[in-house]
Amino acid sequence: MFKLNIKFVFVLAAMLVTPAARCEAPKRPHPVGLNFASYEDPVRRDWTGSRARPLSTVVWYPAAPGSRETDWTVSIFNAGTNAQGAPMAAEPAKLPLVLLSHGTGGAASTLGWLAEALAANGYIVAGVNHHGNTGAEPSYRLEGFMAWWDRPQDISAVLDKLLADPRFGPRIDTSRIGMAGFSLGGYTTLATIGVRLSQKQWQDFCAEASPDNPNCKLPPEIASKYSMDDVNRLLTQDERMKKELERMGNSFRDPRIRSAYAIAPVLGPAYVKDSVAGIQVPLRIVVGTADDQAIPETTAKPVAALVPKAQLQLLPGVTHYAFLSTCTMVGRTVARQICSDPEGVDRSAVHRQVGADAVQFFERTLR
């Protein structure tokens, strides 16, 4: 199943709070089309070293009028309603693009509700399944759970591929490109607009944390397969991983991204403060007040306090997994942790609210 991040605790700072109840459900002027792309990044290798790094990508878009939509179920999730393979709407000739990053161990389809809200309102939305760290692949890789900074590189590589793809490239307005992501995908979002990581900050925090601190433990989907000793060996003895660590503090900012929408972002204690303060594009952060994984005081509030163009929206009572797609009946039976919400929290209502908010944000910032 999916757990979605390795997290840390950060100092509390001032915040900007925007009321959560102003958003209405997003309108649906277009049917939503869905397509798939099997891209690769020839510059990087997969974790076996045998091939180019895969960039399996899901693309949502406004479909031609009359396209027949059907329900889409992926594993234990209700991933939305769309018309797979439908032609793209002919007008307008150029469309804005929003790139999408899922949480740890997840997949692009788990954010189908957000992609669908945007696509129905005239956006092309492209979500990559991050290699080694996605349930869309047959198995996980420990490296994929540790090399977080590979993710923003995936985003830039996918953007290159989309622009070169004859199906999508000619329709993308390159002056209107945005970024959105959830949990570790929230970090990915921030990295694409300039946030850098510090290995020392990460190590110092975990050295002081309690052994039982969930912020420095492996997520459960790989905890039965790997131990923290495995992590330490990987980081200190594996030659490829040691080379990866040398790039951990690099900037992966992509200047083509003009605005960013981060949902429950994580890894705040590893962020280089100056890199956060240097963000220049419009940024909106959304997180639940009851999120015990992307704790607002850990990342969202400190980032919002440092970024001049940031807005922070707190959703009362909402927990981490409410931002995943709704679950099937099987999912609600076998994966209660990620499929159940607290009393009084309606996951579908959260999706409608945040989807409408994202549409409004990108309409303002990607004009």
How many DSSP-defined strands? 10
Q: What is the CATH superfamily label?
A: Alpha/Beta hydrolase fold, catalytic domain
The number of helical segments is 13
Low-confidence stretches: 1-23
- Secondary-structure element sequence? EEEEEHEHHEHHHHHEHEHEHHH
GO biological process, one term: lipid catabolic process
Organism: Piscinibacter terrae
GO molecular function, one term: 1-alkyl-2-acetylglycerophosphocholine esterase activity
InterPro entries: AB_hydrolase_fold, Hydrolase_4, UCP031982_abhydr
Please tag this protein with its features.
10-stranded mixed beta sheet; disordered N terminus; Rossmann fold; alpha/beta
SSE inventory with pairings:
Blueprint: E1 32-45, E2 52-62, E3 70-74, E4 77-84, E5 95-101, H1 112-119, E6 124-128, H2 142-146, H3 150-164, E7 172-182, H4 184-192, H5 199-208, H6 220-223, H7 228-237, H8 239-246, E8 259-263, H9 273-277, E9 283-288, H10 300-306, E10 310-315, H11 329-334, H12 336-339, H13 347-365
Parallel strand pairs: 1-4, 5-6, 5-7, 7-8, 8-9, 9-10
Antiparallel strand pairs: 1-2, 2-6, 3-4
Signal peptide: 1-23
Organism: Piscinibacter terrae
Pfam families: Hydrolase_4 (PF12146)
Task: Characterize the structure shown.
One of its GO terms (biological process) is lipid catabolic process. Residues 97-321 form the Serine aminopeptidase S33 domain. Residues 1-23 form the signal peptide. With 367 residues, this protein is an alpha/beta fold. The chain has a single domain (32-365), classed as Rossmann fold. It is built from 13 helices and ten strands. It has helices spanning 112-119, 142-146, 150-164, 184-192, 199-208, 220-223, 228-237, 239-246, 273-277, 300-306, 329-334, 336-339, 347-365, and strands spanning 32-45, 52-62, 70-74, 77-84, 95-101, 124-128, 172-182, 259-263, 283-288, 310-315. It has a ten-stranded mixed β-sheet, sandwiched between helices. It starts with 31 loop residues before the first strand and ends with a helix. 52% of the residues are buried. Residues 1-23 have low confidence and may be disordered.
